[in-house]
Fold each of these.
Amino acid sequence: MLKKAEEKWAVITGASSGIGLEFVRQLYEKGYSLLLVARRKHRLLTIRWKLQKRPKGTYEVLEADLSTEEGRDKLKKWMDVHKVDLFINNAGFGLAGDFLETDPETEEDMIKVNVLAMHILMKYAVRKMQEQGEGAVLNVASSAGLFPGGPYMATYYATKAYVTSLTQAVAQELKEKGSRVYVGCLCPGPVDTEFNKVADVQFALKGITPKKCVRSALRGIRSRKVVIVPTLTMKAATMGGRLLPRSIAVKLTGRQQKQKLAGDSPEE
């Protein structure tokens, strides 16, 4: 266990599954003290039980629905009394389908988590770290946020574009201030997690493992890279999307997204 004077706290939202859970595993192995934040209490209790079997550092769990002001306030209060060295802003989810048919309440919840909660907590963490004199914030976005638009996952693409745009702008502001606070965004393509099931999509490209994704993210944080794209395939795809005229890029992206919808043939 780390000595109190050497403790480094990492906060991980959306810690109960997928990429968030992999951040828990890898940062715990690196000796970070962890705050695991998620809305599913039973998942948090299971993770806590597993960590207890391999005592290595300090950890706490916080049950909070970050789509609500109450949930965000619970996390803010915890941050008020702890030095936060690393904030993994990971909570989020996706939804696929024709915009005229997708459920508006689900989309509203997605905007609250992917945009509103991400923005509020990022700002709170960055301000705290600026006062501390150092720290790092990683917003977990998606390669979707680097394309001009994504028909058939329209709202999800828009939320992730918000994340990447905000991150790059704030990173530049901090750089111009000479700040020691790092801000970056992780923009993976398909990752083999529960996301596919929740969003109800089938990806055409083979997904990478959460382990590979998080390793790439941690390397990017160490090198202070603002936009982290884990694979060469997705780097090439996002670069191509920027070079094409926007209308063509959106049309091609829409064609790929339509193929992902559960039940559609990849040959359609």
Amino acid sequence: MGKIRVAIVGVGNCASSLVQGIGYYAGREPESAVGLMHWGLGGYAPTDLEIVAAFDVDRRKVGRDVCEAIFARPNCTTVFHPDVEKTGTTVRMGRVLDGVSDHLAGQPEDRTFLVAEALEADAEEVVRVLREARAEVVVNYLPVGSEAAARFYAECALEAGCALVNCIPVFIASDPAWAARFEARGLPIVGDDIKAQLGATITHRTLTDLFARRGVKLDRTYQLNTGGNTDFLNMLNRSRLASKKTSKTEAVQSVAADRLADEDIHVGPSDYVAWQDDNKVCFLRMEGRLFGDVPMNLELRLSVEDSPNSAGVSIDAIRCAKLAMDRGVGGVLHGPSSWFMKHPPRQVSDDEAHREVETFIRG
């Protein structure tokens, strides 16, 4: 089937795990490969992704080959494949807009973004780079709260004729106006807000669905998360958190038997703990009533490396976007969006989302 030509926006921890993963699975046999939902997807292997363009604004990354930039600070995710081969793709200076929050200015240098002095790219420059690289799929890995920047790159993807995989909680695919524009151009879009392979949200959803299926009345619940990566540091600015909380909360509410009152559900990031680095710890509590209104509660602690936890999902989302391009399908890919994302345009149960994505893959 050939390679899938991928452009990355934001060369952070998630991009690092994605690029490491492409190299990690090279040469491995499908039957012995651990950590993938699909080895072959529509004829594409996980190693068929080729990074042909990349944008960032940090001076430690701009101007370097992607294979070096993914290990530059403030990235702090697990290095599970240190010998990433040169990609031949140099990280370009992107557009800052609201991609860097003002409150990061007082943080230690190895924990925050250091904006490069290079001239920021305008839309014309970004589109030119995407076209010259013959990019097919743009992957948005910008920081949470990058509303204007996410829309800037979505506009560039449209202009350059690229599919979009929107991994952050800025509502592009789930905005009917944006969805209509991608459909009109015949370009696929998968979004919004990547759902980890086995993370806090998918676990919370699964347990909420279990309560409903087993006739347990869910009265109240919380999901508190801590982490030490730049995403958690970025979210200390609560004004950047609105769409993230909406995305995570709606992912849980949508599978509850009865919608919980706002005061009875709290789902969202809680605090930044620097020494955790890319390790994310979720504290989950669910209170409910069994037969005879007898009360019960469940508490769970989940610890995962945040960025590798999403990389395998991204690989599948990218391959689905390319598969849609091969088939001449544009607009929102509803099955992949519902299975891979927290805030898809259409929320369905995970069982239904899984059936839909498998049906999509089979064509």
Amino acid sequence: MLENDIRLSVKAALDEDLGHQDANHNQTSDHRSQADITAQLIPSDKYAQAKLITREEGVFCGKAWAEQVFNQLGGEVALLWHVDDGDLLIPNQVLCELSGSARTILTGERTAMNFIQTLSGVATLTKTYVDKLAGTHAQLLDTRKTLPGLRTAQKYAVTCGGGVNHRIGLYDAFLIKENHIMACGNIKNAVASARNLHQDKVVEVEVENIDELSQALDAQADIIMLDNFDINRMLEAVELNNQYKTPEDPQGYQGAKLEVSGDVTLDTIANFAKTGVDYISVGALTKHVRALDLSLRLQN
């Protein structure tokens, strides 16, 4: 899925800059290079070298997207990488050296950098949150609050920063929320219906209080999301969940994994994790994106 999404998202990004293909989808790489009217100022046989650097520290992500950009532009540019996805970066570090057609380098630079700066920004923020979880067993989860069209890309970036992917979309796991519960009648009915529909899918239930938590545990949900619980209620939830663990019957229901959601910031996440919950989900990882500061410089 990721490989296909990389190809499609890069194509869409290049189309934004260079114009869309015709109805028969037969636009050639040569046609695309000619669409950059500013690059036409440069002789077609002009050879160039360039270096891509970061101006700040962070976590690198986006190698495959940059490579795909220049592949779709005709493969006239060679990329020599000095980093891999997930590597820690320092200011003024060289990420990649490019060599080949000057026109193609300049045509593709912004699209390639857009992907790298965005995905590196996600990976960097993710690591900042993950570092706050040191000393606990809690894992950091992303959400579906992603930039349209970049779902798998951003979720991949989260993993590069040390986070863990929640469900990818609406198809790979159940997340039963307030409106689903209301439509089904109650939590027990909603969980039972989910089990009947897809026995192989994870069933998660969002709860807003301890009473709903008890209902979700009685229904034997796999994961329970504690929505906007304060620390005292988190501690109560962990204690209640532990009561469902039965060492004498290891094959039976052992309680749920507990996920915290809501009011999670860099200031609060460490204390939330210390309550003993299993997961903490943060929408900001993928929706509050601050790009990493990059620069591409042609060499004389």
